[in-house]
Amino acid sequence: MTIQQRFQQAKAYYEHWNIDVEGALQTLKSIPISIHCWQGDDVGGFETKRQTLSGGIDVTGNYPGKARNGDELRADLEQALALIPGKHRINLHAIYAETEGQIVERNELQPIHFTNWVEWAKKHQLGLDFNPTLFSHEKAQDGLTLSHPDENIRAFWIEHCIASRKIGEYFGKALNSPCLTNIWIPDGYKDTPSDRLTPRKRLKESLDIIFAEDIDIRYNLDAIESKLFGIGSESFVVGSHEFYLSYAQQNNKLCLLDTGHFHPTEMVSNKLSTLLLFHEKVALHVSRPVRWDSDHVVTFDDELREIAMEIVRNDAIHRVIIGLDFFDASINRIAAWVIGTRNMIKALLYALLLPNDYLRQLQESGNFTERLALMEEFKTYPFGAIWDYYCETQQVPVRENWLNNVKTYEKELRTHRN
Ligand code: RNT
Ligand code: ZN
Description:
CATH superfamily: Divalent-metal-dependent TIM barrel enzymes
Bound molecules: L-rhamnitol, zinc ion
Number of domains: 1
Number of helices: 14
Strand order of the largest sheet: 4-6-8-9-12
CATH topology: TIM Barrel
Distance between the termini: 44 Å
Shape: globular
Helix content: 40-55%
Structural class: alpha/beta
C-alpha cells in the first residue's frame, strides 16, 4: 500500500468520529516551532573571548562535529530544517553574534552583529527569536546578574537586556514577524539564604528599567523565564515562578514556562489553562527533564502530548508560543534537533486528531467511563499513517528515512570538522 492509500484508510477511522483530518493538517502547517540554535554547539556561542558554560546549566557528551561558527551552525540548521515538516523559527542567544573577530561587550551588541542571521532567515523564510545571555561571562561568576548587590554589575546586565530587546525589534521589523525576546537569568544561591526579599526586590527594579524602554509589540514581545533550581543555586533562585508570574501579570509581559523548571511531578500541561485565562499569550520552552533540569531531547511522551492537547483543546495555537530548549552533546546534534522538533509537531497532530469536543461533553455529563475508554483507544488509532502522509506532502523524509540524510551529512562533515 502507498502512503496515500494508508492515509485514506486511516482518515476513515477518524472521520467516523467527525474529525476533520484535512483541516487538522492545515492547522498543523500554521503552527511555527521556535527551534533553539544552541543544540548545535552545546550552548557555546561565537564570542571572540570564548567563555566556558556557566549559570548552573550543563551539556554532557562530546559527539564529534559541533558547529564552530555561524556558517557551520546555519548549514547544520538548514540540514535539520530540511527534515522537519512545516515552516518554523530559529531562536538565537546573544552569544551567537558575529563580530568579525572584534571583541564587542554584551552591553554594546547591536543589530549589525546579527545581519548574517537576518539575511539567512529572510532567504529561508524563517522568523527569529532572541535571548540575552546572562551566563558564561566573568560578570556572572558570582551566580548573580540582574539581582547582584553591585550596582555596576547590575547596570551592565540591564544594558545587555535593553540592547537585546532592540535586536529583537530589528528581527521583528526585518522579518515582518514579532520576535520573542526572553530573559532568563541564573541568579540564586547554593545554600539557604538569609534574605530572600532583597535580591528579588533588586531583580524587580532591574526589570523595570529594562522594560521602561518602549518597544513596539508589533516587532518585539518580551518574555521572562522562571526556574526552580540550578547547579550551584540549589537552595534559592531569585527568578522563581511566582516572581515572574506576578511580574508578567502586573507589567503585561509573557510568562515563559520551561518544562524542566518545576518539581519533577509538577506539570506544565496543568498550568496552561490557568495562564490562558489570565494572560493573552504564554511562551514555552519544551524540554525533557530526566530527574533534574537535564535538557534531554524531547520525546513523544505523555507530558508532551498533554501539553499539545492543552494548546489544541483550549483553542490556543496562536496564543501559546512554542519554543524548544534541550542540548544533548552525546548524540548527533542535527538528529537531536530533528527528533525533538518532529516530536513536538507530532504531538500537536496527535492532539488535533482527537474527538476533543465529544470528550469535553463526556466530562460535562459525568460520563467518565466513556471518557477514559475513548482516550485510551485513540492512543492506538492509525495516527502514524496520517503523520507519514503529512511528512510526504511537506516534502520531508517519511518515518525514520531522515536518518539516512543525517548520516550522509555527518560523513561529509567529518572530513571538514574535527
Ligand atoms: C536554563 C534555561 C534557559 C537556557 C537557554 C540556553 O535553565 O532553560 O532557557 O536553557 O537560555
Ligand atoms: Zn529554558
